[in-house]
Structures are given as structure tokens and as C-alpha cells.
Amino acid sequence: MKRRWLLFLYGAPNIVGCLLGLAGLGLYFAGVIHDYWLPIVLGLYAGGWLITPRRADRQLRLTHELDTEALRASLDELLASIRRQVPADILARTQRITETILEVLPRLGEFDGGSHNTHVIRQTALDYLPTALQNYLALPSAFARLHPLRDGKTAHQILLEQLDLLDGKMREIAADIHRQDSQQLLIHGRFLEDKFRDGQEWLAGG
């Protein structure tokens, strides 16, 4: 009940209504309006509350049937959809996460579809990242920035922590894939060395 009241209090309709109501009070104290000032102030508040657009529910979760190319396009669409809706620090972290995912996407087909890394990457793109953003965007902007939810942290700060966690995991997986690439390069190098060394010995023996 308390949370619902706070969401109403921080909501854009209430804020706009209060601003218009205060404007009405200003007109009363300035002597512009006299009779019926209270109904006018209440009417201004109600008008502001009614005309202010509500935040539409955002369905950011992606379908689990996406192939690699469709997943790439959907991540680009996800970024575009939040670009003007979230603060710069949240957008920057989201961009960093998607860039790492896009970096390793071409490699997913080379690994077993049930591997841990493949699962975590796909779940981050399809569920973890869009769900975190959707939960944040469901809150009024002022509430998300100002009202503490847990341990004195606001929704804004909590989302940043979640994004940092996802970013760290995506970078860890990318580094693991790069290490595998490096190991394969070294193995192939040793193979070539052995191959040509055997060839040189064969030529010398001939």
C-alpha cells in the first residue's frame, strides 16, 4: 500500500497536477482570481492529472526463438527503445553489455548449445538485461532517482549495480573465449613446428 502511494506521489500525472494547482494558488495570492479559487485550483490539478500521458508498459523481453542475426537486430532495437528513456549512465552500461554480447555472438554457433557460457549469454540478451531495464522503466522517473528502496539505495543505483554485474559476467565470458582462441593458435603453432621439423629431418635424411 505504501509503495503504491509513493508511486502515485512520484508519478508524472501527480507532479503536473500539483504544478498546475500551485499556479492556480499563485493566481489567487496575486489577486487575479477571487471567487471560486478553491474549485479552480482543484480543477487545475485534476486537469493536469488527466492530460499527462501515463508511462506505457514496456515489453522489452525478447523471444527465445531468435537466431544470431535476429538477436543482433533485437539488441539494436532494445538500445534504440531506451535511448531517450533512461539516464546517460544506464544507457552507457547497457551499450557496453550489448557490445560485448555482439562481439561474441558469431562464436556461439561453434560451441555446444547447452554450454554454460552460451546459456548465460543468451539468457542475458533475452531475459536478464531486458527484464532489469523493464522493471526500472515501470517506475516513475522521480521515484527511481530519489526514493530509497534497499539499504538507502534508489532504483537507479540498484539498476546500475545489476548492469555492472551483467557487464562483468559478459566480459569474463568474452575473455574466456579469447583465451580459447589463443590456446588454439598456440596448439596450431606447435603442430606446424612439429610438421616442418619432421619435414626438414626427412629432407636431411634423403
- Mean pLDDT metric: 75
Strand order of the largest sheet: 1-2
Give the number of DSSP strands.
2
Helix content: over 70%
| Major beta sheet summary | 2 strands, antiparallel
Describe the protein.
By secondary structure, this protein is mainly α. It has 2 domains: 2-51, no CATH class; 68-196, no CATH class. It contains 8 helices and 2 strands, in the order αααααααββα. It has helices at residues 2-10, 12-29, 37-51, 68-82, 88-104, 116-137, 141-146, 155-205; strands at 148-150, 153-154. Strands 1-2 form a two-stranded antiparallel ribbon. A hairpin with a 2-residue loop joins strand 1 and strand 2 (153-154). Helix 5 packs parallel to helix 8. The longest helix has 51 residues, at 155-205. It starts with a helix and ends with a helix. Mean pLDDT is 75; it is low at 56-65 and 202-206.
Summarize the structure.
The chain contains 8 helices and 2 strands, in the order H-H-H-H-H-H-H-E-E-H. It is mostly helical.
Throw out a few tags for this protein.
74% helix, single chain, disordered C terminus, 2% strand, 8 helices, 2 domains, 206 residues, two-stranded antiparallel sheet, mainly alpha
How do the strands and helices of this protein lay out in sequence?
Blueprint: H1 2-10, H2 12-29, H3 37-51, H4 68-82, H5 88-104, H6 116-137, H7 141-146, E1 148-150, E2 153-154, H8 155-205
Antiparallel strand pairs: 1-2
